[in-house]
Design brief:
Layout (H helix, E strand, L loop, with lengths): L9 H20 L3 H17 L5 H25 L3 H17 L5 H18 L8 H22 L6 H18 L10 H16 L3 H26 L5 H23 L7 H12 L4 H22 L20 H7 L6 H22 L7 H9 L4 H32 L2 H19 L4 H18 L8 H21 L5 H23 L5 H23 L1
Helix pairs in contact: 1-2, 1-6, 1-17, 2-3, 2-6, 3-5, 3-6, 4-5, 4-14, 5-15, 7-8, 7-9, 7-10, 8-9, 8-21, 9-10, 9-12, 10-11, 10-12, 11-12, 14-15, 14-19, 15-19, 16-17, 16-18, 16-19, 17-18, 20-21
């Protein structure tokens, strides 16, 4: 339930919220609210598909997200009202969307979005009721968002590159305020690796490449000093923690200064860190404190100098290489493969939930398969966690919606408050979907309920049904997860073995005097995979 502050996307949340406010307001004003909602869903799902990367890769990710979201919308609309076909297609599309994880994390995300929209528009509650029109509106809304997003982040301003570097510094700041071995988690190294990847994708070279990669190297040097400091904290634990916390506060300020339009004070935390260095209780800790202060001081210097961006940017983006799709899909279609098992599990869980939604006359029954699509994950730990977060977020979302409704009716400005509430809900979805899932669920729940209020219905009447279907979906998914669980213990052993192999390969690369960048990146990836698998096994 911890908020990962490094991944709170304030700018993206505000941008998407403004786009949704305009689309819904225009739709309401011209009497086409259902059309406005379909446009808004397209924009929202395009924003979820967005990523902090080069413009070309962002465009590809958003375009694929919008395309398949429209396909899910179209198929759901076409089969709505034809019960037998609706049920049959539900099983097939769930299998395909689950198997999309064979194409990587983005494929899994887009598969989930496609399945969610199939459930929503198949329920025939949201939208115009005309399948091709709704699918077209999703495309138009998604395209509108893509134009706004890319126009708001011009290539030579390096906004996404600066965001990725800022996330790495903020992740370091968060890590230093954890306890014990949690400070050594590889998340900081992974964020730094991601920032370097974005720099490479943007083709940063010359002064621009030196500036971006210099900031990343400064952070990596600081992180290594922190690891060494923790190894010596027995000399003076209180001093070591003070030094770690002070370095984290300075790193947070540096990260904020790279993306915030408001000038950030980096002098005060830098002075505090240097003062602590001078108070080192012994020579060993003084040397480590010096090694920690040095790179952060260099980073402050880079953040203060005129940035080599805009007209001064030196960029040569490399061509995007598309890996072949068929071999990647074929690779995961073997017995025991986790992607294939997840696809089959999702097929049964979603398909049967869809049967219940189609054959019952209960209001908003589509909420059941939709929630199943959102919360089903490949592993038992991820599913349990997501179910808990979904249920808690839905309950909080209902409370937040009730407050908005009271405010809207109390002020007599029901339409204005409702449209603004949709903007706030959208901000919560995009701003927190990667930082804290329950907060994002609050936004999703508020978005749907407030729209129904605008559409003339009374969302209070169906609150119990929504809560009931959410809880039922959670229990339903858990039953499928524990019936044939994908436990993480063996995965953790495999991941640890791959990590050891990666470290050996890295050591050989260093001994041979070769460029170790790729070997180091592999170590970071395997360490993160091992940490995730061990944490999941512990939870289970």
């Amino acid at each position: 339930m911890r908020v990962q502050r490094a991944h709170v996307d304030v700018i993206g949340g505000i941008r998407t919220g403004m786009v949704l406010i305009v689309l819904i307001a225009v739709g309401y004003q011209v009497g086409l609210l259902s059309e406005g909602l379909s446009l808004g869903i397209g924009a929202l799902f395009a924003a979820i598909s967005d990523t902090a990367d080069s413009p070309g890769r962002r465009l590809r990710s958003m375009a694929w997200g919008v395309l398949w979201s429209s396909v899910g919308t179209l198929i759901g609309g076409l089969v709505s009202g034809m019960d037998v076909l609706h049920i049959l297609v539900g099983f097939i599309i769930a299998l395909a969307c689950g198997y999309a994880g064979a194409l990587g994390a983005r494929g899994a995300l887009i598969g989930t979005l496609t399945l969610v929209l199939f459930a929503v528009f198949g329920g025939n509650i949201i939208g115009t009721g005309i399948a091709f029109l709704d699918a077209s509106l999703v495309v138009v809304g998604g395209t509108a968002y893509m134009l706004v997003a890319l126009a708001a982040t011009p290539l030579k301003r390096l906004i996404m590159a600066r965001i990725s570097v800022a996330r790495a510094y903020r992740a370091y700041g968060e890590a230093t305020h954890r306890t014990g071995l949690e400070m050594t988690a590889p998340t900081v190294a992974v964020e730094a690796m991601a920032a370097r990847t974005v720099s490479d994708h943007m083709g940063a070279r010359g002064a621009t490449g030196e500036w971006l990669n210099g900031l990343i190297s400064d952070l990596e040097r600081t992180r290594l000093a922190l690891l060494a400091l923790l190894a010596l904290e027995g000399d003076d634990e209180a001093y070591a923690l003070q030094l770690a916390h002070a370095s984290g506060r300075l790193a947070r300020s540096i990260g904020d200064s790279l993306v915030s339009p408001i000038a950030r004070d980096v002098d005060t935390p830098l002075a505090a860190l240097e003062a602590l260095r001078d108070q080192a209780p012994n020579e060993r800790l003084r040397i480590l404190a010096h090694d920690m202060v040095g790179p952060l001081r260099d980073a402050v210097g880079r953040a203060r100098r005129p940035w080599p961006i805009g007209p001064r940017a030196d960029l040569a983006p490399p061509p995007i290489v598309n890996p072949p799709i068929v071999p990647r899909l074929r690779e995961h279609w073997r017995a025991g493969d986790p992607v294939r098992e997840h696809a089959m599990r999702l097929c049964l869980a979603f398909g049967l939930a869809n049967v219940v939604a189609v054959l019952t006359e209960l209001p908003h029954a589509y909420w059941f398969p939709m929630t199943v699509a959102w919360v089903t994950k490949p592993d038992l730990s991820g599913t349990v966690t997501r179910v808990f977060m979904r249920v808690s977020g839905t309950l909080l979302g209902i409370i937040v919606t009730a407050l908005f409704i009271v405010l809207a009716r109390g002020t007599g400005l029901e339409v204005i408050v409702s449209i603004l509430a949709i903007g706030v809900a959208t901000y919560l979805v995009i701003g927190y979907i990667w930082a804290n899932y329950p907060v994002a669920v609050v936004g999703i729940t508020t978005f749907v309920l407030i729209f129904e209020l605008l559409d003339g219905s009374n969302p209070e009447d169906d609150v119990i049904a929504r809560v009931g279907f959410t809880v039922l979906a959670g229990v339903w998914v858990l039953l499928f997860s524990i019936t044939r669980p994908r436990r993480s213990s063996l995965t953790a052993l495999d991941a640890l073995d791959r990590t050891a192999s990666a470290i050996r390969a890295y050591a050989e690369t260093v001994r041979a005097g070769q460029d170790a960048a790729e070997a180091r990146a592999r170590v970071n990836r395997e360490r993160l995979a091992a940490l995730t698998a061990v944490s999941a096994a512990t939870t289970e």
